[in-house]
Amino acid sequence: MALHGSGVLCKVSNMVEITSLFGGSMRLLHLPKSYPIHCNMVSASNTFGSGHLKLQNKEPCSRFRPCRVKREDNNQTADVKSISVDETTLKQDLETAIQEENYVEAAKIRDKLKELQEDNKASVLSANSRFYQSFRNGDLAAMQSLWSKSGNPCCVHPGAKGITGYDYVMESWEFVWMNYEFPLQIELKDVEVHVRGEVGYVTCMEFVKTKGSSSWGAQFVSNVFERIDGQWFICIHHASPVDI
Known about the structure:
Residues 89-118 form the UVR domain. Residues 124-242 form the SnoaL-like domain. InterPro entries: NTF2-like_dom_sf, SnoaL-like, UVR_dom. This is DNA binding protein. The protein is an alpha+beta fold. The chain has a domain at 87-241: Nuclear Transport Factor 2, Chain: A, CATH 3.10.450.50. 28% of the residues lie in helices and 30% in strands. The chain is built from four helices and eleven strands; from the N terminus they run E-E-E-E-E-H-H-H-E-E-H-E-E-E-E. The protein has helices at residues 85-99, 103-137, 140-146, 166-176; strands spanning 6-9, 15-19, 26-30, 40-43, 52-55, 154-156, 163-164, 185-196, 199-209, 217-228, 231-242. A six-stranded mixed beta sheet has the order 7-6-11-10-9-8, covered by helices on one side. Strands 3-2-5 form a three-stranded antiparallel beta sheet, with no helix packed on it. Helix 1 (85-99) runs antiparallel to helix 2 (103-137) and helix 2 runs antiparallel to helix 3. The longest helix has 35 residues, at 103-137. The model is unreliable at 1-47 and 49-84 (pLDDT under 50).
């Protein structure tokens, strides 16, 4: 999302003034009064190119809450140390085999454990690819299907505060895409994936270019996924602008 800049207090208006996020002529967008505009006014050079953005709304700016991801089944922050039963069992079996000096069996278990971890990494990368495909095409329906609906998923767009809650996160993507022409050009570099049990994350450099823009915007991105009923869903997207 191309919200990049420092925050100041909102003024009373339900207008969004955009001297395009990616360059171009100014547009005034009327938003419904119920739209949860962020409390801060964003004023900056566009993350994906030159431009200027102001967000103003007359409604109370309280709907976007601080970023905090929790599970519905308890009040604890999502624990990245939680691990799957299969992986736990294999690790226990590996330890037992080593203690019994059954090194042939230990080698087999170690190979199985490595295969499981590689399969998990491939699945997380596939989910990350689907996320960027929906981003590239402005496909809101696809984006909605990719995010976790449990707990409070969190989205941090470039230069903005965190937005939590599934509905609010989806509204933020819809708002960001209001002024885009699709498809966007998106390239990823320095992609790394890590998995620990039911949680996986991808870090990468994200480069975005829009139609009519001559420059690329760069962000360092962390995408966190959680496995629910065997499927990986994104629960945190954090994009930080990088000067290039």
